[in-house]
Amino acid sequence: MIFSKSCVYGLRAMIYLASISREGYVSIKGLSEKLDISFHFLTKILQELTGADLLESMKGPKGGVRLTKSGRCITLKEVVEAIDGPAIFTECVLGLPGCGSEKPCPMHDMWEGTRDEINEIFTTTSLQDMSKEGKAKDLRITPDGKFVWG
User: Fold this and answer.
1) Phi-psi bin for 111: left (phi > 0), alpha (psi -120 to 50), beta?
2) 3-class SS string, the chain
3) CA–CA dist 121, 18 (Å, integer)
4) In terms of Cα–Cα distance, which of 122, 135, 127 is closest to 71?
5) What is the distance between the alpha carbons of residues 77 and 26, in angstroms, rounded to a whole number?
6) Residues forming a β-bridge with 58
7) What is the per-residue pLDDT across 51-102, written as a single tens digit (0 to 9) for each?
8) Which residues pair with residue 57 across a beta bridge?
9) 24: closest CA among 69, 62, 60?
10) What are phi and psi of 73, to 5 degrees?
11) What is the distance between the alpha carbons of residues 148 and 86, in angstroms, rounded to a whole number?
12) What is the four-CA torsion angle of 53, 65, 125, 90, rounded to 10 degrees?
């Protein structure tokens, strides 16, 4: 897995949120149950996404979280950078500082093209793109595949 577990869970939650109406808030408890993610772990992830202005939250009985803007306007890259930072799109795959054309690591040439492709895909793909694809093809978003799209 190239992304941290937090990032993977954040992507899953954001894709789900993009699949439903933005009118109201979605309870974090309900979201954690639907996506089969620990409530406490998900809460921390959602706090990061709220801090990055991708989500807004409201406390109280009708509270929860929702996207700050349409899923069409939020890219996968924004979600990844909010949780894992930009390194996957810019850094050496082995984590070596100064890796580049002049002082490459053993994987530099292979990783450079792949990294650029990943960057392009994540920059041009929105949460709405992923939620539409998921709904249309009934793709799974939970480990057991029992999730029903919103």
Assistant:
1) alpha
2) CCCCHHHHHHHHHHHHHHCCCCCCCECHHHHHHHHCCCHHHHHHHHHHHHHCCCEEEECCCCCEEEECCCHHHCEHHHHHHHHHCCHHHHCCCCCCCCCCCCCCCCCHHHHHHHHHHHHHHHHHCEHHHHHHHHHHHCCCCCCCCCCCCC
3) 18
4) 127
5) 23
6) 64
7) 999 999 999 888 899 999 999 999 999 999 999 999 889 889 898 998 888 8
8) 65
9) 62
10) -100, 0
11) 32
12) 50
Using an 8 Å Cβ cutoff, are 105 and 92 in contact?
yes
CATH 3.10.620.30 given to domain 5-137: no
Kindly report whether the global pTM for this prediction surpasses the value 0.70.
Answer: yes
Tokens read off for 104: 């490459």
Bridge partner list, 75: 126
Extents of the domains making up the chain: 5-137
19-54 pLDDT, tens per residue?
A: 986 678 999 999 999 999 999 999 999 999 999 999
- Burial class of residue 14 (count of CB atoms within 10 Å of its CB; 0-12, 13-18, 19+): buried
Which has the closest alpha carbon to 130: 54, 75, 66, 85? 75
CA-to-CA dists, residue 128 to 58, 77, 92, angstroms: 23, 13, 30
